[in-house]
Design a protein that fits this description.
Layout (H helix, E strand, L loop, with lengths): L1 H20 L1 E9 L10 E4 L5 E3 L5 E7 L4 E6 L6 E5 L6 E2 L2 E2 L4 E4 L2 E4 L9 E3 L16 H4 L5 E2 L9 E2 L7 E5 L2 E2 L9 H4 L9 E7 L13 E7 L6 E7 L2 E9 L3 E10 L2 H4 L4 E21 L2 E26 L4 E30 L2 E29 L6 E32 L3 E25 L16 E25 L3 E14 L4 E14 L5 E12 L3 H4 E5 L5 E5 L6 E16 L2 E17 L2 E4 L2 E4 L5 E14 L7 E14 L5 E2 L6 E11 L2 E13 L3 E2 L11 E2 L3 E14 L15 E9 L7 E8 L5 E7 L4 E9 L1
Parallel strand pairs: 1-7, 1-8, 14-17
Antiparallel strand pairs: 1-4, 2-3, 2-5, 5-6, 9-10, 11-16, 12-13, 14-15, 16-17, 18-19, 18-48, 19-20, 20-21, 21-22, 22-23, 23-24, 24-25, 25-26, 26-27, 27-28, 28-29, 29-30, 30-33, 31-32, 33-34, 34-37, 35-36, 37-38, 38-39, 38-40, 40-41, 41-44, 42-43, 44-45, 45-48, 46-47
Length: 801
């Protein structure tokens, strides 16, 4: 009995001791060397499976047994592993950790390891745009089009197609606000500058599909831009044959600002086309982003943009040779008249932020966008189309001799106002995001355009009357409507014995007063990093995505009793719908002491309730009715890494098939179904002399399906030739870094001076952007290719301060 009592007493004492030992919470924030929060950092107790991950704020928390010595291991790809030893844990503790980059420094070049991607959203370094040879004048989109699944067949435009979708299916955000572009622009040479200013950009995120519920109602992709908040005084100025850019950023404690000015003129570039003309394109963009922290937990910021695009065009002559060696043709035109276009946009947004605590952020946003678009031209021409001899270019047979007139007086004014609320709440393993928005739209559209062709008198009236035109288009429409939308989503990260899981689930709902339609979009994705090999990442995403109609989609063309084409708005038009299913993954590895990553995604998109459209250059004309269904499927592969030590380069390859059935017809390709695309971005420097850098961008894309004017793809189509283009840029660092000259006089205020030489379209390949259609006396139509720009040299000077 005594032994049994002693044993019972010892058991009770041991239990009390164990109970008293309890658990303690170790928490804190993880930041990089610059003080920025680090997410997806793996924190674990050494020699155990007890671990967690840091959230978007860099915060982590895990529970350990008290009374023990604890060793914590902090690891994140791209950073040196950190280890912290706690000799004795008796209560909850706060432990903040700074992690340093794993990097190889080569003068001004720093190559870091590759971060993990557990969702469909991938990141892009905006600094790469600075030295990139870009005929569009320097834009974030010029790098986006080298990503897998993204294509562009026009170097003069910042528009792009993603996995067979239209340009209008891509949504762009700047600081959480959707940005808009003019609606009347019909060619890349009219387009001017992209809204996004690369000099002001801090972070770029892009998803080619399967994106989160917090992003709006588009069917293809999202480009999410965050502008920078400078930590001190900084700036840059550059000038080239294409224009000039400058920006200045500053910080004075509570107040920061970054302001950028851009000017672009493509006069010299447009002179490499087939049309001899007086080109006078002038594009101006002024932006500013200001923040003010008027209380410890309160901040207000303002984003403003003013863009003025003026395009003047006085054509004289055009001579285009096309066809094959055995069927060569030549097209000559003598023209008179002019075109004058003006696109003015003004955008302003205010955001009020409140940090309720270190894990909760609330915000109110209000924005306004106004656009005034004017397009006018009166151009007449006498043209000749004939066969060209194989030798000497001699003319054998006249196929058509005729005269044409083109006229337009188009005006479109749009006003869009937006008020919304958003919130972010970060918990132990969850990040909850929500938002609601009310948007008011008012659009006024007046179009008056016609085209007349006279081939040997076939269009002239017999016995008097009016002269017939081959095509005309008239519009006098107004639209006032309200959109209400909201979303709720959660990011949940958890660890098992198998590895780390990242689950993103959310719903989005919208209502539009014009067509009385409510749409509901559930979306989800899951990412997995296995414990057996943390170089692997797997992703799976699916969701329901709608393309809510905007003004252009509503327009449908009807014929009146006189044969005139009149634009009406289809109030019964509903949203297009797409179901995304995406499966993919990454594999990161090191070879020859350098970092590499291979990414692959397979996707399938079920499309219905489609509003078909045709494409002419960058002008999209919709049918204005939900009369088609289709699908898109493909494979995207991207090989990314340090092909040259200390630089990042990549090559992307895509196979894709996108088809649609219009009004029950056989399946035909969608307008942006190219079949395949190969793109390359490559950086290099001169061996042993890192001041000389090379940037190369190459694109090889399949041809696009094309139809005759005023017909659809179901009536027949042909494809444009393959798009092939290589742009090459050389940059030389005149001064910077530790150069002695940087310590003298004026140069003390500068960081770098770069001199660049670009060779656009290195191999002088004639790419086709669209076709000009002519008619002979027998009413037979010929498609004359409109070629894009040829080889062109550009000189650049960049000064950083």
């Amino acid at each position: 009995m005594k032994i049994r009592a002693i044993a019972t007493l010892l058991f009770i004492l041991f239990s009390i001791s164990a109970f008293g030992q309890g658990r303690a919470k170790i928490s804190g924030y993880i930041r990089d060397a610059d003080g920025n929060p680090l997410d997806l950092v793996n924190i674990r107790v050494k020699n155990t499976l007890n671990g967690t991950m840091s959230n978007e704020k860099g915060y982590y928390s895990l529970s350990v047994a008290t009374g023990d010595s604890v060793t914590l291991i902090y690891s994140c790809l791209g950073y040196n592993k950190a280890e912290r030893i706690l000799p004795l844990v008796t209560k909850d503790m706060r432990l903040n950790v700074q992690m340093n980059y794993t990097s190889l420094e080569l003068g001004e070049v720093v190559a870091t390891a590759i971060r993990k991607q557990t969702t469909t959203l991938e990141t892009l370094n905006a600094d790469r745009v600075k030295l990139l040879p870009d005929p569009a004048g320097g834009s974030i989109e010029s790098l986006v089009v080298t990503f897998a699944g993204v294509t562009s067949n026009n170097e003069l435009s910042s528009q792009y197609s993603v996995r067979g979708g239209s340009y209008d299916e891509n949504i762009v955000y700047v600081n959480g606000l959707e940005v808009f572009r003019p609606l009347l622009i019909r060619s890349g040479q009219q387009e001017g500058l992209s809204f996004i200013n690369p000099d002001m950009t801090e972070a770029v995120n892009f998803s080619a599909g399967g994106f989160e519920a917090r992003y709006g109602d588009k069917m293809s992709s999202v480009l999410d831009i965050t502008y920078k908040k400078p930590k001190g005084f900084e700036g840059s100025a550059s000038a080239s044959l294409l224009g000039a850019n400058a920006y200045v950023g500053s910080s004075s404690g509570k107040f920061t600002q970054v302001t950028g000015f851009r000017y672009k003129t493509g006069r010299s570039l447009l002179k490499t086309t087939d049309t001899d003309a007086e080109y006078d394109p002038n594009f101006i963009d002024l932006q500013t982003y200001m923040t003010y922290q008027f209380a410890p937990k309160w901040e207000i910021n303002f984003l403003g943009n003013l863009a003025i695009n003026n395009y003047k065009f006085i054509p004289h002559t055009r001579e285009t040779s096309f066809g094959t060696a055995t069927n060569a043709k030549k097209f000559k035109v003598f023209m008179s008249g002019q075109e004058r276009d003006k696109f003015e946009t003004l955008f302003g947004a205010l955001t009020l932020k409140h940090n309720l605590n270190e894990n909760t952020e609330l915000g109110l946003q209000a924005s306004a966008f106004t656009s005034k678009e004017e397009e006018g031209y009166d151009i007449a021409g006498d043209y000749w189309l004939g066969d060209a001899a194989e030798e000497g270019g001699g003319e054998i047979e006249n196929l058509s001799i005729a005269r044409y007139n083109e006229h337009a007086r188009n005006r479109l004014h749009s006003n869009i106002m937006n008020v919304g609320h958003y919130g972010i709440a970060r918990m132990k393993n969850n990040t909850l995001k929500w938002g609601a928005t009310v948007q008011l739209e008012k659009i006024n559209d007046k179009i008056s355009e016609w085209e007349k062709r006279d081939s040997a008198g076939y269009s002239l009236p017999q016995g008097g009357g009016n002269v017939n035109v081959i095509a005309n288009l008239f519009s006098d429409n107004e639209l006032e409507s309200t959109r209400i939308s909201g979303y709720l989503q959660d990011v949940f990260k958890f660890r098992t014995k198998q590895g780390l899981f990242t689950l993103v689930g959310g719903v989005r709902g919208s209502y539009w007063s014009y067509n009385k339609e409510f749409i509901f979009s559930p979306r989800a994705s899951i990412g997995f990093i296995p414990n057996f090999d943390q170089n692997l990442t797997f992703r799976l995403a699916s969701g329901l995505y709608y393309q809510s109609p905007f003004y252009k989609e509503l327009r449908t063309t009807v014929q009146d009793e006189h044969g005139n084409s009149i634009i009406q708005l289809n109030k019964n038009l509903k949203s297009q719908r797409s179901i995304h299913v995406i499966a993919g993954g990454d594999y990161t590895f090191r070879a020859s002491g350098r970092n590499f990553k291979v990414s692959a995604d397979m996707y399938y998109k079920k499309l219905d309730n489609l509003n078909p459209y045709t494409v002419d250059n960058v002008k999209i004309r919709y049918y204005g009715e939900n009369c088609a269904e289709g699908h898109a499927m493909g494979l995207d592969v991207k090989f990314f890494g340090e092909f040259v030590p200390g630089t990042d380069s990549w090559i992307s390859f895509s196979l894709m098939k996108a088809e649609q059935s219009i009004r029950g017809s056989e399946y035909v390709p969608m307008p942006n179904s190219q079949g395949y695309n190969v793109s390359l971005f490559f950086q290099d420097y001169f061996p042993g002399y890192k001041r000389v850098k090379l940037n190369l961008k190459g694109v090889l894309s399949g041809g696009l399906p094309v139809t005759a004017p005023r017909t659809g793809y179901e009536d027949g189509y042909f494809r444009t030739p393959t798009y092939k283009r290589v742009d090459l840029g050389f940059s030389y660092q005149l001064a910077g870094g530790t150069d002695a000259i940087m310590d003298r006089g004026f140069f003390r205020n500068l960081k770098n001076i770069w001199l660049g030489l670009d060779i656009f379209n290195l191999f002088d390949i004639k790419n086709t952007s669209s076709y000009y259609w002519i008619t002979n006396i027998d009413n037979h139509q010929y498609a004359i290719p409109n070629y894009l720009t040829g080889r062109q040299l550009n000189v650049r000077l960049i000064v950083d301060f």
